[in-house]
Amino acid sequence: MYYYYVVFSPIEALISSQLEPKAFGAYMARGSKKGSAERLMFAEVEGEFGDYFDWEYAKAKCVTHASGEVKHSLYLSIYRVIEHIPLKQYKNIYLVNKDGSTLCLEAAPYKTPSNWRGYGLYKEHCPVHPLVVSSLEPDMLADYIINDTTKKITVPAIIFTDIRIIDFNEKEDTGNIGSMYERDLDHLKDCIATIQSNKDKITKTVDRSFDTKFSYQIIDNGFYFARGNGIIFYPMLSSEQLKEVDYDWARSANFF
Q1: CA 197/CA 181 separation, integer angstroms
Q2: Cα separation of 121 and 19, whole Å?
Q3: What is the SS3 assignment for 248?
Q4: How far is the CA of 107 from the CAs of 43, 82, 101, 209, in angstroms?
Q5: pTM, full prediction
Q6: Dihedral in degrees, nearest 10, Cα atoms 219, 220, 221, 227
Q7: Confidence band (pLDDT; 50, 70, 90) for 95?
Q8: Closest CA to 126 of 139, 142, 111
Q9: Strand 203-207 to strand 219-227: parallel, antiparallel, or no bridges (unpaired)?
Q10: How far is the CA of 171 from the CAs of 164, 175, 201, in angstroms?
């Protein structure tokens, strides 16, 4: 038995493994040696489609060792992965803490954010990584990034999340979002003002290197996987849902 996983943060890779998803998450976060610790996000995919990836190589090499130990990871690609994966191949996604604890999120029908305020804050995860503010709702943003040929730069596929936006007047009403807004608050306000005042300015980069400051607790509605004209939505669980589903994961991720 083997699985196929697309890691979309902190790297982009397609990996075959004999580990089931949560065991794979723990292995990738902690490694096989003590002292290693890394947060990552990945999706399970239904493999063996098309001819871009070498599925025969995976079958031949992702096998149990002579000692009886299963194959932990076999890299099939580390470049331009998500653009070659049809959306229908994606299954669940997994959010992994540095301690290896892993939360599963399932897809749900796309819906317009209930808290839409005329602009959104988005963290792009793959294949590009900035934090941007935009006047577009998630599905329209994905279409703009992928399909708008009036601009010079597009990408063939994108994975991103929407980020909880601070209540500028009552910051404590925003809830627990860690230290995200402790710095550069004026810069964020300026970026939002630019989007609001200039109808021709659809997106504005807030931070080009936000990966080190990203945390699960700042996710708002969830994750969006887009390719071509399609989009998959993976809703993020609320704090109350996390208490019921996986309190230990949420505590490790600093929700409580």
Answers
A1: 23
A2: 35
A3: helix
A4: 11, 17, 20, 28
A5: 0.92
A6: -50
A7: very high
A8: 142
A9: unpaired
A10: 12, 8, 27
